[in-house]
């Protein structure tokens, strides 16, 4: 399946499913969170890779391209040797950050109970 295109067969004209699927995949929210928490205006690829050590180079590249395609981040290439590429959050994602931060806060508040429930169900 093409990671960048998910369609709802019953409602092909509804963009909500596609938007949420791309934004809420395994890595996108983590990349957005990492770009936001860095406290910098921009981050380079290697910095992101160091901050998210369990993401492969290929998956980070795909995720960054998807986020750029949807207008959540900008990618600036500087014609230097070696080339320098910087990533930054856009105003569109800044308007979503309060909601992402609320979700993260909720997860932190409930993580212990969720982990306990998972253990109980596995028994």
UniProtKB/TrEMBL annotation:
A Pfam cross-reference name: HxlR
Record key words, sorted: DNA-binding, Transcription, Transcription regulation
Signal peptide residues on this chain, from the entry's feature table: none
InterPro entries: HTH_HxlR, WH-like_DNA-bd_sf, WH_DNA-bd_sf
Superkingdom of the source species: Bacteria
Xref: Gene3D superfamilies: Winged helix-like DNA-binding domain superfamily/Winged helix DNA-binding domain (1.10.10.10)
Domain HTH hxlR-type: 14-115
Protein name per Swiss-Prot or TrEMBL: Helix-turn-helix domain-containing protein
Species this protein is from: Bacteroides gallinaceum
């Amino acid at each position: 399946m093409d990671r960048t295109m998910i369609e709802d067969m019953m409602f092909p004209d509804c963009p909500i499913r596609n938007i949420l699927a791309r934004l809420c995949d395994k890595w996108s929210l983590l990349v957005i969170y990492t770009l936001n928490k860095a406290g910098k205006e921009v981050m380079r690829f290697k910095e992101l890779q160091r901050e998210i050590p369990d993401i492969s180079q290929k998956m980070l590249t795909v995720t960054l391209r998807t986020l750029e395609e949807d207008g959540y981040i900008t990618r600036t290439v500087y014609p230097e040797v070696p080339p320098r590429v910087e990533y930054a959050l856009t105003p569109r994602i800044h308007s979503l950050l309060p909601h992402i931060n609320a979700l993260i806060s909720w997860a932190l508040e409930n993580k212990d109970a969720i982990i306990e429930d998972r253990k109980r169900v596995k028994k």
